[in-house]
Design goal:
The protein has 557 residues and is α/β, with parallel strands linked by helices. It folds into 2 domains: 217 residues, no CATH class; 311 residues, 3-Layer(aba) Sandwich (Alkaline Phosphatase, subunit A), CATH 3.40.720.10. It has 21 helices and 11 strands. Strands 1, 4, 5, 6, 7, 8, 9, 10 and 11 form a 9-stranded mixed sheet that branches. It has a two-stranded antiparallel ribbon with strand order 2-3. Strand 5, helix 15 and strand 6 form a beta-alpha-beta unit. Helix 2 runs antiparallel to helix 6. It is globular, with a radius of gyration of 27 Å.
Length: 557
């Protein structure tokens, strides 16, 4: 012990270095722990922890290279802002911030009031650790200007960092080399979170800065026209049999388990259940969420176009002026309206309305109830296509929770109770609309835009499933698809796992637009013999190429 104390006293630079390194590493590790997507296991994932220490040591070494100890406080504060901002974004969108998130700054107008609702008491650990560093630096009388620049320290931890990181990179991919700041390396890791978790949030920040400065590295992917031939119809049939009205409801954060569920003999979605139980309905309970960083707008885009989102960024801010074949564009002679609750800035709906082929956008209805009431009192001339986008059940499920008449058990977790109440509120609002629809000439489609409950949240709800008789999934969540159509003569239950991109193709069939040029990458869910012609991964790759090249504009029919 005396030897250790003597060693510490004789090596103040090393002691300070390791304190700073471990404080930064703890911040990064706590971030991964807070998100709890893949909890870190020290024994199994020692290389990941070693990488964290290596990266943070590399950052800490600059204190001694430039010989200005307050450098690390600036870094620590910036890291706090970065980590807390990502925590808020993660809790809201189940995704990490990227440079493309800055393009969606207009979305903040609608969520500033709820930002602080995503902060948790445990987040205070970040400013506390920064304050601890400040106190240590104040207490430490070490004059760095009198110390020699320790290049050996810098080189040691640089080599340590590289040695710990390369094995992980090589295990994941060989075709892009081993440079962790490569944009292709990040894409090969599948998602931002996997990269961030393996190479630290600090490295992830630097990579986002590199993407910002050299986005041209991504280039524009090539399109092989033969890959698209199975999804294109070149011969047109002008004999269209029916002109059904269409109401497409994109229900915010609606998951399958909530459909047809009851608590104490109270239906959570009584109006949707009427369509669910109709003999003229189709129900798919395992629709895979195919959204990416755009979440709601990605779901809206896929349902409307049969394409999947782009790899990086959101379509509504990067490719909002493209030409898209869509459900709306296939319905010539229809009155086509998009109905939303917000002011039109959220997900750039002003522009996307036109890009997706709608005639007009009605917004600023203040609530789902007011929106549906306005629609029911001002139904457009037939034939019409109405896309209705609800918002009340957006996280954190608080603004309209008190507007529901559901009476729930007092011991139910508050976020679970509020989710059920906001879904019930939106369902009641939709009831106003459905009661004013001619069901003999109207197709009604209801689907969720994306899943909402993180795996950790589903784990928390697990012990309440049996108690409340709610089938909350634990491993994988799905969104529902309910289609009511007079053309469906016998109730159809789709038991297979399907995809959001299938909704577009199914709608074209119900609308008798099977001769429309673009049939989408999905399959017709009403055709029990349909064979999937493309994998979801290939559909994503081709969709990204089509969108980034504005390919449909060149072949617009």
């Amino acid at each position: 012990m005396k030897t250790l104390i003597k060693l510490i006293k004789n090596n103040p630079v090393w002691v300070l270095f390791f304190i700073i390194t471990f404080v930064l590493a703890i911040k990064c590790a706590m971030f991964i722990h807070y998100t709890e997507y893949f909890p870190l296991n020290f024994i199994i994932e020692w290389k990941t922890y070693a990488t964290y220490i290596g990266v943070c040591g590399l950052i800490s070494s600059f204190v001694f290279i430039i010989r200005w100890k307050w450098w690390i406080i600036i870094v620590s504060v910036i890291l706090d802002i970065w980590l807390v901002s990502n925590l808020i974004y993660w809790r809201s969108y189940n995704d990490l911030l990227s440079i493309y998130s800055l393009e969606a700054f207009g979305n903040m107008n609608t969520i500033w009031t709820s930002v602080f609702l995503f902060l948790q008491w445990k987040d205070i650990i970040y400013p506390i650790l920064t304050l601890l560093l400040v106190l240590i630096l104040i207490y430490n009388s070490l004059n760095l200007l009198q110390q020699k620049r320790n290049y050996i320290l810098y080189l040691f931890f640089s080599i340590f960092f590289i040695l710990c990181t390369l094995p992980q990179t090589r295990v994941k991919t060989k075709e892009y080399g081993t440079h962790i700041f490569s944009i292709k390396i990040m894409e090969s890791w599948g998602m931002y979170y996997n990269y961030c978790r393996s190479f630290t949030p600090i490295t992830y920040l630097f990579l986002q800065l590199k993407i910002l400065l050299s986005e041209s590295d991504l280039g524009k992917p090539m399109i092989n026209e033969s890959d698209l031939e199975p999804f294109i119809v070149k011969a047109k049939n002008s004999n269209i049999k029916n002109n059904f009205n269409l109401i497409l409801v994109l229900f915010e954060s609606l998951e399958t388990w909530i459909i047809n569920s009851e608590i104490d003999n109270q239906q959570i979605t009584p109006n949707i259940n009427k369509l669910f139980n109709s003999p003229h309905s189709l129900f798919a309970d395992k629709v895979t969420d195919q959204t990416r960083s755009g979440k709601s707008i990605d779901g809206q885009f896929t349902v409307n176009t049969g394409l999947l989102p782009i790899y990086n960024g959101t379509i509504c801010y990067r490719h909002q002026y493209n030409y898209y074949f869509s459900v709306a564009n296939s319905l010539q002679g229809y009155k086509k309206q998009m109905m939303i609750v917000d002011d039109g800035q959220l997900w750039n709906q002003h522009t996307m309305t036109k890009s997706l082929g709608y005639d007009s956008l009605f917004y600023n209805n203040k609530s789902d109830y007011n929106m549906c009431l306005n629609i029911s009192q001002n139904m457009p001339d037939v034939p019409y296509f109405l896309q209705v986008i609800t918002l009340a059940s957006h996280v954190p499920f608080k603004e309209f929770a008190d507007s529901s008449d559901l009476i729930l058990p007092k011991d139910m977790p508050l976020d679970m109770a509020n989710y059920l109440r906001t879904v019930n509120y939106s369902d009641n609002a939709l009831g106003l609309l459905f009661n004013n629809v001619n069901m003999d000439s109207t197709i009604i489609v209801i689907t969720g835009d994306h899943i909402v409950l993180h795996k950790e949240k589903r784990e928390q709800f697990k012990r309440y499933r049996d108690k409340y008789n709610l089938n909350v999934p634990v491993e994988k969540a799905f969104i529902p698809l309910i289609i009511y159509s007079p053309e469906i003569k016998e109730r159809v239950i789709v038991k297979d796992t399907v995809y959001q991109m299938d909704i577009y193709t199914t709608l074209l069939h119900l609308l008798n637009r099977e001769d429309y040029f673009w049939q989408g990458f999905g399959i017709n869910l009403l055709d029990t013999t349909a064979i999937r012609k493309i994998t979801p991964d290939d559909a994503l790759r081709l969709s990204d190429a089509i969108i980034r090249n504005d390919y449909f504009r060149t072949i617009q029919k």
